[in-house]
Amino acid sequence: MKNTLILPLMLAMNILFSNALPAQDAANTDKLKPFAAWIGRWQGESSVKMGDGPALTAQMDERVEMKLEGAIIVVEGIGKGINPTTKQERVVHHAFAVLSYDMNSQEYRFRTYLKDGRGGDAWVKVTGNNTFQWGFDIPNRGKNRYSITVDPVKKTWHEIGEFSADGATWSSFMEANLTRVD
After folding, report:
1. How far does CA 66 lie from the centroid of its chain?
2. Pick from 136, 130, 134: nearest CA to 180
3. How far apart are CA 22 and CA 24, in angstroms?
4. Cβ-Cβ contacts under 8 Å for 24 (sequence gap 6 or more)
5. Could you read off the pLDDT tens digit of each residue along the chain, which spans 182 residues?
6. Which run of H or of E encompasses 14?
7. Among candidate residues 94, 32, 37, 34, the one with its CA nearest the CA of residue 68
8. What domains can you pick out in the chain, each with its CATH number?
9. What sign does the dihedral 56-53-114-99 (CA atoms) show?
10. Keywords in UniProt for this one (predicted)?
11. Cβ–Cβ contacts within 10 Å for residue 91, how many?
12. Does residue 142 contact residue 162 with C-beta atoms inside 8 Å?
C-alpha cells in the first residue's frame, strides 16, 4: 500500500515542480552565442606582476566548453610555473568558472572558483565583436577587471587584467596570450 502511494506522489510532485520552473528555451541559449569564440582549448603564456617584484610567468592551459545544450559555458584554467627556489614546475593558478545568462535579471553571470577555496560572482559584458570585459570588487581594496579579445580567424586570445583602488585609475597587472590548439 505504501509503495503504491509513493509513485503517484512522485509523479504529482514532478508535474507540480516542472510547471513551477520556467522552461529553458532557445532565447536563453541564444544569449551565450556572443561567447562562441571562447569554445575550445587554449594554451600560451601569462604574466602577472604584483607590487614591485618581478613579473611571474606561467604556461596556461584553458579549456572552455559549452554545457547543458548551450545554457552555460564552463572555463577551467591551469597555469604552471617554475618555483624559483626548487626549480620544479608547480601549479601556480587553477581556476574554474561558469558563465550563464540570467533570464530574470537579463544579465550575464560569471561564477568563479579558485583552487584555494576563494571565488565569487563577477560581472561580464560583451563590449564588441569578440571583445569582452569581466571583473569584480575586492572588498575594502578596489576592483579588478579583465579585458578579453578573441580572434577566431587567427585563433588567439589576448587578456589584460587591471586593478583600480578608486574605480577610475587602472593599472595593468596581468597579461595572457593564448592560441587555440584544438
Report:
1. 12
2. 130
3. 6
4. 69, 71
5. 555 555 444 545 455 455 444 555 566 678 999 999 999 999 999 999 888 888 889 999 999 999 999 999 999 999 999 888 899 999 999 999 999 999 999 999 999 999 999 999 999 999 999 999 999 999 999 999 999 999 999 999 999 999 999 999 999 999 999 999 99
6. helix 2-20
7. 32
8. 38-180 (2.40.128.20)
9. negative
10. Signal
11. 11
12. no
C-alpha cell at 120: 565569487
Q: Which residues pair with 138 in a beta bridge?
A: 142
Write down the residue that cell numbers 589576448 correspond to: 158
Cell 584553458 belongs to residue: 62
Q: Which residue has cell 569554445?
A: 39
Residue 144 vs residues 88, 96, 136, 139: alpha-carbon distances, Å = 30, 17, 6, 11
The owner of cell 536563453 is: 28
Please, are residues 20 and 148 in contact by the beta-carbon 8 Å criterion? no
66's grid cell: 559549452
CA distance readout (Å), 9 to 13, 14, 16: 6, 9, 10
Nearest to 92 by CA among 61, 137, 119: 61
Tell me the C-alpha distance between 98 and 110, whole Å.
6
**What 3-state class would DSSP assign to 6?**
helix
